[in-house]
Amino acid sequence: MEPNSKIIIIETIVLPGGQYEYLEERWARKMDLLMFSVLSAQDGSAEEWTSIVKKADPRPSLGRIEKPPGSHDAVIEIVFGYPN
Known about the structure:
The protein is 35% helix and 24% strand.
């Protein structure tokens, strides 16, 4: 990939406690438990996404993670080279 190339992932992530409104946090935690019990999987945190990116390829870095208000999904930016 070219320097400053970006990969954008739309994914549900689990933010640290207290960063959601009450009902939104309940929904996020419930979905995380559901994924774990049904699929043996879970939603990742920012730290887990950083680890996943580094294990896949040491060149890129985790750019930004933004969760739009009212959305259950977040935008995860992976950057090759230096972020602008």
